[in-house]
């Protein structure tokens, strides 16, 4: 099995479980830079989009250099980059870069994960009442 086939196999399993013919959005969760197969996986996702099995493709947790490499090597820009984004981690440079490249930023946030979370911040407590 090649890396390009991994997205196809995962998608086929998801479509079967969901009893659907296609997905509106298919995301790559993380680039896993230590393994460095994300461009090949992205190429597999592009093929799925061309076949009509997914309408849009995007990524999660990609930094600027990961995104630039995808664009440079495939010519296909993700429609979404889902990133951790909250008052304690604003990632303004990445958010701005996404915007200039017409990539929607979608945020996810562990609001109260371990240690001092977002809700423990004085400004948040004061704002929230």
TrEMBL record:
Reactions this protein catalyses: hydroxyacetone + NADP(+) = methylglyoxal + NADPH + H(+)
Domain of life from the UniProt record: Bacteria
Annotated EC: 1.1.1.274
Domain NADP-dependent oxidoreductase residues, every copy: 8-114
Protein name: 2,5-diketo-D-gluconic acid reductase A
PANTHER family: ALDO/KETO REDUCTASE
Gene Ontology terms, MF aspect: 2,5-didehydrogluconate reductase activity; methylglyoxal reductase (NADPH) (acetol producing) activity
Stored PROSITE patterns: ALDOKETO_REDUCTASE_2
Enzyme class: oxidoreductase
InterPro entries, alphabetized: AKR (IPR020471), Aldo/ket_reductase_CS (IPR018170), NAD(P)_OxRdtase_dom_sf (IPR036812), NADP_OxRdtase_dom (IPR023210)
Pfam families noted in UniProt: Aldo_ket_red (PF00248)
Keyword Nucleotide-binding attributed: no
Keyword annotations: Oxidoreductase
Gene that specifies this protein: dkgA_1
Naturally occurring in which organism (per UniProt): Salmonella enterica I
């Amino acid at each position: 099995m090649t890396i390009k086939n991994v997205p196809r196999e995962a998608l086929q399993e998801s479509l079967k479980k969901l009893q659907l013919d296609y997905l509106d959005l298919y995301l790559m969760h993380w680039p896993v830079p230590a393994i460095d197969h994300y461009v090949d996986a992205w190429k597999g996702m592009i093929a799925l989009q061309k076949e009509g099995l997914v309408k849009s493709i995007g990524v999660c947790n990609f930094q600027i250099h990961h995104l630039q490499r995808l664009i440079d090597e495939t010519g296909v820009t993700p429609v979404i980059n889902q990133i951790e984004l909250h008052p304690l981690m604003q990632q303004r440079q990445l958010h701005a870069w996404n915007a200039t490249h017409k990539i929607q930023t979608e945020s996810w946030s562990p609001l109260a994960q371990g240690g001092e979370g977002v809700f423990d911040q004085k400004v948040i407590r004061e704002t929230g009442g």
